[in-house]
Amino acid sequence: MQFIDLKAQYRAYRDEIQRRIQNVxxxxxxxxxxxxxxxxxxxxxxxxxRYCITVASGTDSLExxxxxxxxxxxxxxxxxxxxWISTAETIALVGARPVxxxxxxxxxxxxxxxxxxxxTPRTRALMPVSLFGQMPDMDRINAIAARHGLPVIxxxxxxxxxxxxxxxxxxxxxxxxxxxxxxxPLGCYGDGGALFTNDDTLAERMRAIxxxxxxxxxxxxxxxxxxxFDTLQAAVLLAKLPHFDEELRxxxxxxxxxxxxxxxxxxxxxxIPWVAPGNTHVYAQYTIRVRNRDEVAxxxxxxxIPTAVYYPKCLHEQPVFAHLGYRWGEFPIAEQAxxxxxxxPMHPFLTESxxxxxxxxxxxxxxx
Length: 368
Fold this sequence. Notes:
Blueprint: H1 6-27, H2 34-47, E1 51-55, H3 58-68, E2 76-79, H4 86-93, E3 97-100, H5 115-118, E4 123-126, H6 138-148, E5 153-155, E6 163-164, E7 167-168, E8 175-179, E9 193-197, H7 200-209, H8 231-240, H9 244-262, E10 286-289, H10 293-302, H11 332-340, E11 341-344, H12 352-367
Parallel strand pairs: 2-3, 2-4, 5-8
Antiparallel strand pairs: 1-9, 6-7, 8-9, 10-11
Helix pairs in contact: 1-8, 2-8, 3-4, 3-7, 10-12
């Protein structure tokens, strides 16, 4: 069984994907070709913003957003310790300091009640993460940011397609950032990402930064990077995008079936995914909480059922961030989650019979 079955997805859309790729091979505009422009227009319309700037990876998108906001040495950016390292890594890459705030136990997203206490005169931005597939309370986060004159960057790498009160993830903050890594809900066949904004100046700056700091060849107005999105990868996403909403519906159906099968099986608080009022959830991961997590995962693997852990350590535990001076116990909700979360197979092509196998293996693993 596949944890995420990209082969099944390819077989379903093979003709469209191959046609799109063949078009690129024939016109041979492999860097910033017409498919990139077409995709950016389609994604901006989908999210509901004026500008989409595609980039080479989700990590690059966060770094470009920070650079566009002119965040650098001596600055602080508030985020969470329970996320993939790119979130804090990019803050450090521009010379700023990640400042961590604990998460909400039910959604795994930043706890808005704790944000203002972390704001200092050096705070230059808030970077909430929309973990596992749903958004944190963006109305509250944006209101806090507005009171303090701060921009907000949504790290929407796992939530592209999700909505909150009818508005799309990546389209509700100063800058939205997402990833098209193959395992994401909307994934290409390599690395890729995108930035979203309604701000004319930020859009122009981000577009320049991704292309060595210049919008015109041999004219560089900013220190930039090679962060361009490949035309071939844009072609893959253009083939997949028309099917995306149907895939999201399938993810919701599969998650609901998991929920039904696990309601009476798991006994930890917030043991199955909870969707906050006003939110939709794209289930980039279907994540549960269990005692003896590592042993449960080992028992399931012995039955041929793959699982994954996002994430087994918090960022303040990583050696690279030891200099920040955080200690175990400062973020108890994030720390507990990191020891209990377990993600089950989730993708739009998961069959009911395979899902039944997952549920049966999990129940056996819990009872062993």
